[in-house]
Amino acid sequence: MSDMAWYKTVKFKWMMAMAIIWLVVDQVTKIWVVNNIAYRSKGITVIDGFFDIVHAQNSGAAMGFLNDYEHRMLVFAVFTVIALGVLAQMYREIPADDRFQSIALGLVFSGAIGNAIDRIHKQSVTDFLRVYTEHETLKPWLAENIGWTEWPSFNVADAAIVVGLGMFIWFFAFLQEDEDELEPEPPESPVDINA
């Protein structure tokens, strides 16, 4: 890195801005839901038959995985430490002026910390975004072919992680320049005409 301080780099500023903004949004929305929507009630209908704001508590991982496992908090703690280690390594590998990957990293970081705060505070995560269908044609088709008509409730931290990971997938699939193109070709060796 040049003589620029690490905290003045574009990647640090963008990553921290995204992490702070989405961590605050995540925590504020969870607090609002806990204080304003009764647990396991119908909640607030935003788009009838498709999207509600509800109050759910998930003591497991995604889709209730490990809900009943006695040592799940230890598993989550270990997973969070490993995830933060991976994120730290990814941060080191991002070029100092890269905005796109820094934003993606900030989103994933904010989501990991946001859900970790919930687990430390109350051993469960507040979920409140409910996406489902009551569509007459779509509901039977989903039930028959996929087995469900409702996505498990999630929160802003979950959404930030998914969007951040999606950005990384997009970057590595479509935006990353081929390393061969970045390396200059070696100069041709002069031809000895006397040979």
Concise summary:
The protein is α+β, with helices and mostly antiparallel strands. The protein has helices at residues 10-36, 72-93, 100-122, 138-145, 156-175, 179-182, and strands spanning 44-47, 51-58, 125-132, 150-154.
Quick tags:
about 200 residues, alpha+beta, four-stranded antiparallel beta sheet, 6 helices, 4 strands
Helix content: 40-55%
How would you sum up the major sheet? Answer: 4 strands, antiparallel
Terminal CA distance reads: 46 Å
- Helical element count? 6
How does the helix and strand content classify structurally? alpha+beta
Low-confidence stretches: none
Envelope shape:
globular
Report the C-alpha radius of gyration, rounded. 23 Å
- Supply the number of structural domains: 1
Count the beta strands.
4
Instruction: Going across the biggest sheet, name each strand in turn.
Output: 1-2-3-4
Please, could you describe this protein's structure?
The protein has 195 residues and is an alpha+beta fold. It has one domain. The chain has six helices and four strands. α1 (10-36) packs parallel to α3 (100-122) and α2 packs antiparallel against α3. The chain is globular and about 85 Å long. The mean pLDDT is 84.
Helix-strand blueprint:
Layout (H helix, E strand, L loop, with lengths): L9 H27 L7 E4 L3 E8 L13 H22 L6 H23 L2 E8 L5 H8 L4 E5 L1 H20 L3 H4 L13
